[in-house]
Amino acid sequence: MARKIVARTGFTAANDSTDLNQVGSIMDDASNGKQYRYVRVEDADLAANDVVEYSDATGTEVTKDVAGGSSVGRQFAGVAVNTVKDGNYGWVQIKGLATCKVLKATAVLAGQRVKTGTADGCVAAYAATTGSEDYSFGMALANDTATTSADGTVAVMLDL
């Protein structure tokens, strides 16, 4: 796949039923330093702030379904910026300051590295262990807003 970079100022969310922006394209937003990748969504609808993983070997399809979906290797692919239906195309953020979903009754603290979580669409705190690989993709800039009864969000600087 060739890398195509599209420079734009200002961002337009997408939920396209057909490939309107050439899947795999990367957009740099000059207004805020964020970067986005145009992808196809698999397994389940996405909501804003869902953390997604790759679901195919081309790097153009993503899923938030970590338990029963088609995730390939539990590798971070981006953060959904809006609602995108299963099977449709849209943009996921891959660089810059993002808001990520956090599962209720979990904790992500300011300064912690983060990784994809064990719950669909969620981020979790990363902790290095002996023999572990580094699957972290960013750093929390604040404490999360999750409670024991409701999911929350956390501000994360994506730095792949």
Structure in words:
The chain is an all-beta fold and 160 residues long. 0% of the residues lie in helices and 37% in strands. It is built from no helices and 11 strands. Strands 3-5-4-6-7 form a 5-stranded mixed beta barrel. Strand 6 (76-80) and strand 7 (89-102) form a beta hairpin. It is globular and about 40 Å long. The protein starts with a strand and ends with a strand. The model has no long low-confidence stretch (mean pLDDT 88).
Strand content: 35-45%
Counting DSSP E segments of at least 2 residues, the number of strands comes to 11
Q: Give the end-to-end Cα distance, rounded to a whole number of Å.
A: 19 Å
**What's the number of helices?**
0
Report the biggest beta sheet as strand number plus sense, adding barrel if it closes.
5 strands, mixed, barrel
Secondary structural class: mainly beta
Radius of gyration: 15 Å
Q: Name the helix and strand elements from N-terminus to C-terminus, one letter apiece.
A: EEEEEEEEEEE
**Helix fraction by DSSP (H/I, runs of at least 4):** under 10%
- Unreliable stretches covering 5 or more consecutive residues: none
Oligomer state equals: single chain
Give, in spatial order, the strands making up the sheet with the most strands. 3-5-4-6-7
What would the average pLDDT be, to the nearest integer? 88
Shape: globular
Protein traits:
single chain, mainly beta, 160 residues, 5-stranded mixed β-barrel, 0% helix, 11 strands
